[in-house]
Design brief:
By secondary structure, the protein is mainly beta. The chain is built from 1 helix and 25 strands.
Amino acid sequence: MCTLHTDHTRVGDTLPSSAFLVLAAETPVCKGDSTAGKTVQCRGKKGGAVKLKIKASVDAANSNVEWHKDGSALTIDGNKLVKSGGKDEELTINTLAETDKGEYKATKISPEEKFEVQVVDCLGGITTPALCQGKPGGSIELGLSGQTGTTFSWKKGTDTNAITADKKKYGPVTEAILEVKNLDDEGDDVEFTGGPTGSENEKFSVQVADCFGATGTVECPGKLGEKLKLRISDTVTGTVTWEKVGGDLPVGNQKVGAKDVGLKLEALKAADVGTYKATYDTSNTVLFAVSVPDESGTSEGKKPTEKPKEGSGVGGLSYSPALLVTVTLVHLLLQLAA
């Protein structure tokens, strides 16, 4: 496994809420291995990027490096795939997606160098836990960003014992990627750690909710009769205060998580539609606009359009008084003509 290097911000580190629009993590670099037959693992985050860089030295006498994926030559478009270096010895893969997984090979060098690209939902952080968000009942893949070793372990919350194998709940528990399945909005909303057995030092702040927000207004559509969990996605130092704008919190609501970071609405009703305000750390606020869209896409809880009164139209259509007179005269003329 290669080590992912960045100059300033480590991939997976959480940025302050005020920095999300202006800062971005630099592209991690995955260095190859020139040992014949060796394949290095390169993990990247969905939507992010990763740069593959060969270990071999190239000079003017060498041909330009060519890049292949799963045995086929790559078409370098300069956008999704970007080559760099004097002899194309670096390949950057942008906007990582599931389809980017596979074996990449640098050719025209001896020996050829191979990279296994893995794409995960979340890459670990060391100084600051990586922020990893998932939906209740869904799954999320946690990946170690830069660890070497043959056996890895994972821990959950304050438990000092390593996670044990459970096909319904976890993917492989001794590898560099851990899949957490059937996410529970309370039990899995904790910090996970992973790394080589005995030194699990990469952290993952897993958050599970239907709707996340740190500032501004967040749209939160729900379904009648089903629960809906709202959650602060920022780091919280004090206790969160929840209120419903213009009314009281629904009966049966639950404040969940350490410091009340989440608000769970049970068996959502039309009366629960509205804006919920969360205030934390004195001055930070976020509004959650809860709606219950029906099949036509409109929101329950709004006043329905008034139906026409009986006798005001023909076939369920409504007419103005002048138009109704005209329609009546036309019917009379047609009867006389017959």
